[in-house]
Specification:
By secondary structure, this protein is α/β, with parallel strands linked by helices. It has helices at 2-26, 50-62, 76-84, 97-105, 182-193, 202-213, 227-233, 243-252, 283-293, 296-306, 313-316, 319-325, 327-333, 340-347, 354-371; strands spanning 28-36, 65-73, 92-93, 140-152, 176-179, 219-223, 238-242, 259-262, 269-274. Helices cover 44% and strands 15% of the residues. Strands 4, 5, 6, 7, 8 and 9 form a six-stranded mixed sheet that branches. A three-stranded parallel sheet has the order 2-1-3. The radius of gyration is 24 Å and the shape is globular. The chain starts with a helix and ends with a helix.
């Protein structure tokens, strides 16, 4: 009887072992990627489908299935709140410089193992020692650029453009769009007034808030991604947004719209980055994904699709990319670098103390009530 029981146990153990072995072979890895909207080549209109290419490449390289769950960021602050509250577990995120600084201070980012990211060698050296991550411990730069003024030349007079003042010009009442993110909106007023966008003084933020209230009756809407359709269709005629987005809007503008762009004297400089949260479930897989994103074919495809400047030499030194983008777009996206980093250090956002962030949120609620 004991022999039969032992034999039965061995048979069951063997079957269970085979079953578990089979499960291992069919296991599907999951990578949770959280990125900005329209910030990766997605396969539309004949472009490269970055996510599908990664899944296919990973299967061919490692003989394992991987599924990328892709979601989009509405703001740096929203992403930060969701991660800090433990509401989600992302493996790869794309925070802007000041948010990298904040998350690093709060031990919310995973130090990168560059043995798994050899393509990081192609990031321009000048992008590897920036204030928010001077040793490149937590971040790999993905894109960079500046914000400026986008306007419809069929509506806005050339004599009115050149500075931030046009965003407060009553001639264009009801045709102006403003950022729907507190700090971004306040910064437009601070650049206009010549104030420090990282000011420690409450009174500077209050002055900026007052300036935004003066846009009452002028502002058509507070927007983020909604800006594309509104500017392309001619529904709105003036907005502050990023150079890369101008290139996209201009390509899709209606026949009766003539979108143009300029950089005011003082404006926002930024670097968006690829990072891994400290609570990521698949850190090594995340590093492999980052390395894939930095490979030439994929990096060029992404840069061409999103129209933002790339810090990756494989992109900005590629003749096909330069020719494909065209002279006008290259001049807008890649301004002379002589004093770029001096201006970046002067005008880029820094992480702010919690007291200042609370003040900004309080002012923003008051601003929205005033504008409505």
């Amino acid at each position: 009887m004991k022999k039969k029981i032992i034999s039965l146990f061995l048979a069951l153990s063997s079957a269970l072992s085979l079953l578990l072995s089979g499960c291992g072979k069919n296991e599907v890895l999951t990578l949770n990627v959280h990125n900005w909207g329209e910030y990766i080549s997605d396969g539309s209109e004949g472009t490269v489908d970055t996510i599908a290419e990664f899944e296919k490449w990973y299967k061919q390289t490692y003989n394992k299935e991987v599924k990328v769950n892709y979601s989009t960021i509405t703001s740096n602050e929203n992403m930060y709140n969701r991660i800090s509250e433990g509401a989600v577990n992302y493996d790869v995120i794309f925070p802007t410089d000041y948010m990298v600084e904040r998350m690093a201070k709060e031990n919310m980012l995973h130090p990168l193992n560059y043995e798994n990211i050899p393509n990081a060698q192609y990031i321009g050296e000048e992008f590897k020692k920036l204030y928010f991550d001077p040793e490149s411990t937590y971040s790999v730069p993905y894109t960079y650029g500046m914000s400026g003024i986008i306007y419809d030349a069929n509506v806005v007079d050339e004599q009115d453009v050149g500075s931030w003042d046009v965003m407060w010009n009553e001639k264009y009442s009801g045709r102006i769009l403003q950022y729907n993110i507190p700090r971004y909106a306040l910064s437009t007023a601070m650049y206009k007034l010549g104030l420090d966008v990282n000011s420690p003084l409450d009174e500077d933020w209050e002055k900026a808030a007052q300036a935004l209230k003066e846009q009452k009756g002028l502002i058509k809407s507070l927007v983020m991604d909604e800006i594309y359709n509104m500017m392309e269709s001619g529904e709105a005629s003036l907005a502050s947004y990023y150079a890369g987005d101008f290139i996209t809007m201009r390509a899709d503008q209606a026949e009766n719209v003539d979108l143009r762009f300029y950089y005011p004297e003082r404006t926002h400089f930024f670097v968006d980055n690829i990072c891994i949260p400290a609570n990521a479930q698949n850190k090594e897989l995340a590093e492999i994904f980052i390395n894939f994103m930095l490979s030439k074919e994929i990096a060029v495809a992404n840069a061409q699709y999103i129209n933002y400047a790339s810090p990756n030499r494989l992109v900005y030194e590629d003749e096909g990319y330069i020719e494909g983008m065209g002279k006008e777009a290259m001049e807008v996206l890649y301004p002379p670098m002589d004093n770029f980093f001096e201006l970046y250090n002067k005008y880029a956002y820094r992480d702010l103390p919690q007291q200042k962030l609370d003040l900004i949120n309080t002012l923003w609620e008051d601003i929205k009530m005033s504008l409505s």
